[in-house]
Here is the input.
Amino acid sequence: MLQVAEAQRLVLERVQPLPPAVWSLGPEALGLVLAEDIAGDIDMPPFDKSLMDGYAVRSADMPEGKAVLDVIEEVTAGQTPQKKLGPGHATRIMTGAPLPEGADAVVMVERTRLVESTSPKREQGTRIAVDDKPPKPDQNILRRGREMRAGEVVLPAGSRLRPQELGILATVGRTQAHVIPRPCLAVLSTGDEIVEAAQTPGPGQIRNGNGPMLVGLAARAGARPTYLGNAKDRLDSLRPLVEKGLQHDVLVLTGGVSAGKLDLVPGVLADAGVEAVFHKVEMKPGKPVFFGYKELNVVGTLRVPSVSNGTLRVPSVSNGTRSVPTTLVFGLPGNPVSSLVCFELFVRPAIRASMGHSPGPHLVSAELAEDYPYRSDRVTYHPALLDSTGRTRKVRTTPWFGSADLRGINRANAFVILPPGDTIHRAGSWLDVLVVESEFDRGGVTAK
Here is the structure.
């Protein structure tokens, strides 16, 4: 039976970043990866500007840092200076305002005081006394083009769009850009025993927690999820919903993948042209997990980007017919904890890789906070609480009654990975931990 690492490798072998698309650069673009270099269209700042509220001066007028100067003008942000600064002159200036011609420094307003004018005929009628250190050229000034020059690449292809990148894009006048888009992901629940949340379960039935959970996990990972509903354990119910799901970049099914009489998913997928890569992985929970893909022949022009060492590369255009994976298919076990663990180990990395990101999963090492005896014939992903607030990262198991216990993982933010065997895991030992809730997740989207 496959080990987890080998199964993850087989998944990622079938994943390519999605072809670039033009995307509007609003909040929905958070977390996306640029597929083009972005260059500035103007110098920034487009003029020499003041970094302080104060007075624009000539440093040559203040060799000792003290002077009495005539104020000839006031310039606020958004205005343009009208007067050139001459000897013995100063211009009242606000933060962000353009520097007047002749000035080479700005003195903070706190280092000045108003003095009475000795010439009532002067246009402004204001003088200031400056008491400061000798100003240096460019003091409190940001020169034109210091941040970026017109034509300079300010964001290279492969950059991940955080709020600060969205700000830079707006600064250079971009409202759209070519990015690697979010994959469209369909979630399909299965089972005669399943009813939706608004329904009252009948005898032998339970409400569907897997569907909303998987939609939420997909959105948190960055995909655009759509919930297709619940298919009954009948071919006439399952087949049309599978066909609908195969129109997406990723199809995630839950339930119906084990070896029971009504576990119809693998057969229906095969009939629909899905090629199985693996079915069952040596892990607990989640052993029956299925992964496959459906290919489509693409005729004509094709551009398939790839990411290598964090750098996006878009190959030259080629012509002809190629066979490329168009839908990744994951069949997850019906028990909710199994579904969650399998999603984090296999589906989430596939989503991230398809978006041009480093795929993960997010694994850390942590010190076990207390003794924990455990027996299993397979590696186990046990719900746990990871505490990273201290000097040493600590992890402790949380109460759990098995793969059907969804409420049991409500208190957990991670899964501690317990090796197979009959072992008392001692406090102070270090174990690997699968993190499922952290700042690692950014850029979620609204589900359909």
